[in-house]
Amino acid sequence: MEEKRTEAAIRAAVEAILFAAGGSVEASRLAAALELETGEMEDILRRMELRYEEEDRGIRLLELEGAWQLCTKKEYYGDLIRVVKQPKKYTLTEVLLETLSIVAYKQPVTKLEIEKIRGVKSDHAVNKLVEYGLIEEVGRLDAPGRPILFGTTEDFLRSFGVSSVEELPKASPEKLEDIREEAEEELGQKLPEPENE
């Protein structure tokens, strides 16, 4: 009869897998590899996440929409870049941030929908965000021309320090009304009432 692994042995195996993978690995894949139930694997991952946060460690365990990854704690980034090649930095202009916000909150979304919201062509902004790895093609719309649907990436989640898009801040109804009034003033006309989602 095979002896059941201890949680310490499972944690060590998870660390080895995540270290070697380099990127994120879904909890279900970790569970299958370690012959555990997905729920049990998720419980162990959450305990590991807490341990990394509580202990004085240079790395942390990060969840990205059901997938897990080992990464450097942000407070050690300055030390890290003095040793390894400095990662490519990109500048998010107002146009890029506006476009990225539309994708983040409306995804999956086509370029035409982005342009409709922004009121201007968005080819350059979309291409730059894809180049920066913050958005990606997530499918095609079942419509004439089969336009590309865009969504955010794991790099987007990492960059903005959230585990999923559900954690993005929501605007209060008062703020939305202020934005609406500003837009109507700028356009010089009343906007149609928003649809209830």
Global mean pLDDT: 84
Distance between the termini: 55 Å
Give the neighbour order of strands across the main sheet.
1-3-2
**Biggest sheet features:** 3 strands, antiparallel
| Helical/strand content category | alpha+beta
The CATH homologous superfamily name of the largest domain equals: Winged helix-like DNA-binding domain superfamily/Winged helix DNA-binding domain
Describe the structure.
There is one protein chain. The chain is of the alpha+beta class and 197 residues long. The chain has 2 domains: 7-81, Arc Repressor Mutant, subunit A, CATH 1.10.10; 94-187, Winged helix-like DNA-binding domain superfamily/Winged helix DNA-binding domain (Arc Repressor Mutant, subunit A), CATH 1.10.10. The chain has helices at residues 7-21, 27-33, 38-54, 77-81, 94-106, 111-118, 123-131, 154-160, 173-187; strands at residues 25-26, 59-64, 67-72, 109-110, 135-140, 148-152. The strands form 2 sheets. It has a 3-stranded antiparallel β-sheet. Strands 4-6-5 form a 3-stranded antiparallel β-sheet. The mean pLDDT is 84.
